[in-house]
Amino acid sequence: MKKFAGIDIGSRTIELVVIDEAGQIVNSLQTDTGFDPMSEAKRMTGEVEYTTIMATGYGRNLFEIAFDSPTVTEIKAHATGARFYFPEATVVLDIGGQDSKVISMFPSGKVKKFEMNDRCAAGTGKFMEIMAKSLGFDIEQFGEKAMKYKHRLQISAMCTVFAESEVTSLIAKGHSPADIAMGLHQSITNRVAGMIKRVSAGEDLVFTGGVAYNPCMHDQLEKQLGVRVLTPDNPQHVGALGAALLARAEA
Amino acid sequence: MKEEIANRLQQISEQNLIDIEQAKEQGRSVIGFYCLYSPTEMAVAVNAIPVPLCGTRNDPIPAAEETLPRNLCPLIKSSYGYGVSDTCPYFRASDIIIGDTTCDGKKKMFELMARFKPTHVIELPQSQNNPMAMEFWRAEIEHFKTVIEETSGQQIDKAKLGAAIKLMNRERHVRKALMDVNKAKPAPLRGAELIEILFRVGFLADKEYGISLMEELTAAAREGAFRQGDPPKNRARRILLTGVPVGLGSDKIVNIVEQLGSDIVAFENCSGYKQAFTVDEGKDPIDALAEQYLATPCSVMSPNEGRFNLLREMVEEFSIDGVIDLTWQGCHTYNVEAYLVDKMLQETFGITSLHLETDYSESDTEQLKVRIEAYLEML
Questions:
Q1: What is d(CA B108, CA B271) in angstroms, rounded to the nearest whole number?
Q2: Do B218 and B193 contact (CB within 8 A), yes or no?
Q3: Are A155 and A190 found together in one domain?
Q4: Strand (E) or helix (H) holding B200
Q5: How confident is the model at residue A165 (pLDDT cuts 50, 70, 90)?
Q6: Contacts of residue B349 in chain A, CB cutoff 8 Å?
Q7: For residues A199 and A151, what is the distance between their CA atoms, to the nearest angstrom?
Q8: pLDDT tens, residue by residue, A189-208
Q9: What pLDDT digit, counting tens, does each position of B30-81 carry?
Q10: In Å, how far is A184's CA from the nearest CA of chain B?
Q11: Of A113, A117, A159, A198, which to mutate for an interface test with B (greatest number of B Cβ within 10 Å)?
Q12: CATH code at B26-156
């Protein structure tokens, strides 16, 4: 039986997904990207069996050279992966380690339009990590803690560096970490909602990438956009899964 | 580009600088132009040499940033940087620099430039349909005429101006014919090659020589001289680049598209197809110049219907698969107009455009590559 692998080499993590001919997930691995992504990729691919592999993510071109494999952009990979979980979906929001993107699709699943924010870390996973740390929260609990807010706060800075100093001054003014955390979640939501509105027209949204684990983001997006926000079981694997599905389609 | 032609163009550029120096020694004036809104015919009418000025490379930007704000448009910074660091031979050769009030950044930059170089700024109206704007613009063109007369020490009469219009019409006609070669499928000229030819020919002091060179290259391109030995491509998309001007050094988008296996077949910008116009030879020359030049469909005009008409025409005639709309950082008018361009393309042709905002630096190459690759994938 043939097996198809997809590898998503992102800025923070690498995911590897292997599917069989029927499209069932056989293996699913994840590791931190670290300083030497190709060694990590080599180790991971050595742990599984597959017939062909397709690479995506910002490291895809390095992988293409090292492993002589075909590649696909994150845009197409995420669109394909999201449709696997939600076959009717036409809008995908992916917030990864260092970029965020919104993809809209035709009902057929073909990519129609996309928007990316990637020139700085504003509103991405990396931004949230730094903000959580400066408030003394684990990134895993950041969303839950924010949902315990008592007072609404307006946080305007979106640049990681400026937001950090804005957070510091809010702490100094005596605001609670939960209130500040909520303010941060809201300002990220505002920014992302703008991107979503530019490419879509109020359709339900599939939310992928590490930030999709955050319940507060999920909640805020639904409230602000008035749409259902759908999150796959493993939102970080969607890109790799999409690549594996595309490897299968090409075989 | 085929090496032989590339080498020849390089040689021609070098020879051209020597020719300009000699012409200056013999008393011919050199007039430096920044923008398509300034009629080069005025310079041609007094047998002066009109030259475009450098402004498409990143190198002089640090020199410009000693004076100008960093978040300004790279074209303005590059133009100023070349001037202030004295690294553009055409700037140096120019007796006077002609600018236009196309945007706030340029307008204020020219004030600073005027401190070290004779500079004349033509004031451009912001609308093309207003009779008062036309009256004002015509007066600006008349005034521009007197500036050229003073600089060159020669009078411009109707006959001279009429002859200049005829010559420049011929040049534009030949330039258009060269760009039109790419209506063929597959496109006989790569976008990067077209930019290099147009860029280098644009600097030529001898207009007749430039015309015959473009005619020769057009014929060679039609015969497939530029594509000899190219491997056949199966998924090449025909892309139109619209928006801000591009030239050698600011062509990174063109290079990325072509590295990814597609072709930029046409340019709807002021370094490309916006130059493919004809000035009416039957009218009073000043009237004809004023009318035609004000009709230039740049985003500084409000509204800018001409650009949408031109885009519609080009998408059809060049059998375009996709449109990349380029904005230089800080160029508000193109940045805002991108929304309308995308809307028009969706409504008329059912294609979405890819809008990119960047500068001349290489720092975002990978990010641009993802966007462009994803766009080509979806076409």
A1: 23
A2: no
A3: yes
A4: helix B191-202
A5: confident
A6: none
A7: 32
A8: 988 998 999 999 889 999 99
A9: 999 999 999 999 999 999 999 999 999 999 999 999 999 999 999 999 999 9
A10: 26
A11: A113
A12: 3.40.50.11890
Q: Which distant-in-sequence residues (6+ apart) come within 8 Å of B132 by Cβ? A: none
The domain locations on chain B are: 26-156
Which residues in chain A are closer than 8 Å to B352, comparing Cβ atoms?
112-113
Helices and strands: H and E segment counts in chain A: 9, 9
Structure tokens at B359: 């500068």
Residue of B nearest to A118 (CA): B367
**Segment B317-349, tens digit of pLDDT:** 999 999 999 999 999 999 999 999 999 999 999
Q: Could you say which of A74, A99, A113 has the minimum Cβ distance to residue B352?
A: A113
**Which H helix or E strand runs over A113?**
strand A111-117
Q: How many angstroms separate the CA atoms of A187 and A132, rounded?
A: 14
State the total domains in chain A.
2
Same domain, A94 and A216: yes
pLDDT of residue B1: 64
pLDDT value of residue A156: 76
Supply the range of the domain harboring residue A218. 89-231
Residues in B touching A72 (Cβ below 8 Å): 377
Half-sphere exposure of A129 (CA within 13 A, CB side): 10
For an interface test with B, give the residue of A54, A94, A98, A111 to mutate (most B CBs within 10 A). Answer: A111
Query: Region A27-32: what's the mean pLDDT?
Result: 95
Per-residue model confidence as pLDDT tens digits over B5-27: 889 999 999 999 999 999 999 99
Q: Pick from A76, A110, A119: which is nearest to B374 by CB?
A: A76
ipTM of the complex model:
0.86
Q: Is A134 on the interface with B (CB under 8 A)?
A: no
The proportion of chain B whose per-residue pLDDT surpasses 70, expressed as a percent, equals 99
Percentages (nearest 5) of helix, strand, coil residues in chain A: 45, 20, 35
Q: How high is the pLDDT of residue B232?
A: 66
Closest by Cβ to A75, choosing from B364, B366, B374: B374
CA atoms within 13 A on the CB side of A213: 15
Q: Count Cβ atoms below 10 Å from residue B62 Cβ, excluding itself.
A: 12
Q: Do A118 and B352 touch (CB under 8 A)?
A: no
Q: Hey, are the CB atoms on A114 and B374 less than 8 Å from each other?
A: yes
Q: Which residue has the higher pLDDT, A159 or B10?
A: B10
Check if the beta carbon of residue B256 is closer than 8 Å to that of residue B365: yes
**Pair (A168, A223) in one structural domain:** yes
Q: Are residues A51 and A95 in the same domain?
A: no
Nearest-angstrom CA–CA distance, B215 and B265: 19
Q: What is the mean pLDDT of residues A81-87?
A: 97
Tell me if chain B has a CB within 8 Å of the CB of A122.
no
Angle formed at CA B282 by CA B277 and CA B288, multiple of 5 degrees: 55
